[in-house]
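Postdoc handover notes: sequence design on the structure in folder B. Input tokens:
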């Protein structure tokens, strides 16, 4: 009996993540090559930028937004621009407060990514180009890069605030 209670308590304390909803929050696609009459020769250069955001709605419900900007260029001429904010609403339970931030910005985007990738592929195809299949994103590495960038910014701010003082 004590073992069953221990297992029930352990299962109750397990982190739980449930996707309540996912959706395109904002989408913009511009086929600049056609608008300007630019002829695309060869394979264009494609640059993908990713940003993450998370917002708390209730104690257990959060919105996580993956923002993707894609710019395609051929011989210094922009071919197309795609901006997509893809969001998900999550219910998260039994995650320690000190682990919630990385959980929101690593695990949640990881779950949204296949659907975001499909939207990007469909939009580029429907926009007159071959479907763009974005490479997998290492959200843990992205999270660590953002933390390092924030720490450097804080150190730079602290350095100017605590800089040398003197009288003239």
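Designed sequence:
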């Amino acid at each position: 009996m004590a073992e069953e209670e221990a297992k029930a308590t352990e299962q109750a304390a397990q982190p739980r993540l449930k996707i309540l909803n996912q959706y395109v929050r904002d989408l913009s696609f511009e086929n600049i090559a056609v608008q300007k009459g630019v002829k695309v020769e060869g394979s264009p250069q494609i640059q993908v930028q990713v940003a993450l955001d998370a917002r708390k709605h209730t104690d257990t419900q959060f919105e996580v937004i993956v923002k993707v900007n894609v710019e395609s260029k051929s011989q210094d001429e922009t071919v197309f621009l795609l901006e997509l904010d893809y969001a998900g609403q999550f219910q998260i339970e039994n995650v320690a407060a000190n682990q919630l931030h990385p959980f929101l910005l690593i695990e949640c985007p990881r779950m949204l990514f296949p659907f975001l990738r499909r939207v990007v592929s469909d939009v580029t195809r429907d926009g007159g180009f071959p479907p763009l299949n974005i490479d997998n994103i290492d959200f843990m590495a992205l999270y660590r890069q953002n933390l390092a960038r924030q720490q450097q910014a804080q150190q730079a701010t602290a350095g100017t605030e605590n800089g040398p003082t003197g009288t003239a």
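Context for whoever picks this up: The chain has one domain: 15-152. Don't rerun without checking with the PI first.
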